[in-house]
Amino acid sequence: MSVSASPTPLLGDRLCENGYECVKILPATNDAHGGVIVDLKEPMDSELFATLLRSSLLHWKKQGKDGVWIKLPIELVNLVETAVKEGFWYHHAEPNYLMLVYWIPKTGCTIPPNASHCVGVGAIVLNDKKEVLVVQEKRGGFHGIGVWKIPTGVVDAGEEIFEAAIREVKEETGIDTEFMEVLAFRHTHNSFFGKSDLSFVCMLRPLSFDIKKQDLEIEAAQWMPFEEFADQPFNQMHEPFKYMIELCLAKVENGYDGFSPRPVSSYFVEELNCLYLNSHDLDNTS
């Protein structure tokens, strides 16, 4: 998750209180929720850090600040123990930094939890011969059980759902596609490290047909007649796959309308993002 901050520094390295005593504190910026963010980049001795941190916490408490975020790059791992001893706790980590947090007020803590969900996509790619693009995986729960499945994967940070679906198909099979719709999504819990999952079932149109499978994760890939794919015993036993097949048939035969991405602007950010909606029904009622 990200923590928004004001563009100008709130505090300097040195603060003079009452016009007499100069107290050195950590440089920080305001966040958007009454707290401060300390983004350390330069090496620092742990004892000096402890002294500055205590002075800073006293100052921020006098200012009426709430949450204190400390972003420690992996190079400053020596400061983690010092921060924890002062009452900070882990909030989240990325490959190159650890975010620690502290709540100053005596009231209940309102710091949002770490990101709770992983977002995934599954891509149904159906050609004009009513063949579906399927793979067998080299690893994971589907390895070694003989099941042909649709390409799936995780949405990367900053990536749109439709972009992830197109990318995963290309990576696993070499097939270029055009995104059509989200047909459905599934919400599950207690997955990877106790997190929840949102998985989006997507329909795509193939733009190429010669398969070039990925060697690292994919055992085999092929265009399979849809009826043969649907009749796999596993698909009849595993209810989410059974519904996926029914949705695909409803789309092809009965005009089932899913959600397609529509770029929208926002008051809060400059970049466009996508709202997924039933464009067919919306446009017909406008």
TrEMBL record:
One of its GO terms (molecular function) is ADP-ribose diphosphatase activity. Keywords: Hydrolase, Metal-binding. It comes from the Eukaryota. This is 7,8-dihydro-8-oxoguanine triphosphatase. Belongs to the Nudix hydrolase family. InterPro entries: Nudix_hydrolase, NUDIX_hydrolase-like_dom_sf, Nudix_hydrolase6-like, NUDIX_hydrolase_CS, NUDIX_hydrolase_dom, Pre-Nudix. Residues 116-248 form the Nudix hydrolase domain. It holds the Pfam family NUDIX. It comes from Vigna unguiculata (Cowpea).
